[in-house]
Specification:
The chain has one domain. The chain has 45 residues and is mainly alpha-helical. 82% of the residues lie in helices and 0% in strands. It is elongated, with a radius of gyration of 16 Å.
């Protein structure tokens, strides 16, 4: 398990990464959500 310092570090790094790659990240999340939705709507055989 991560200690509090490690979690805090990951949060800060994640926030920096998110701010730098906001558009790309949003695009990936949107694409992933669309893909998952498509897979859920697909009839299972």
């Amino acid at each position: 398990m991560l200690n509090n310092q490690g979690v805090d570090f990951l949060r800060k790094a994640g926030r920096q990464y998110f701010e730098q790659n906001n558009k790309e990240f949003a695009y990936v999340v949107q694409g992933t959500a669309v893909l998952q939705f498509s897979l859920l709507k697909m009839p299972l055989k």
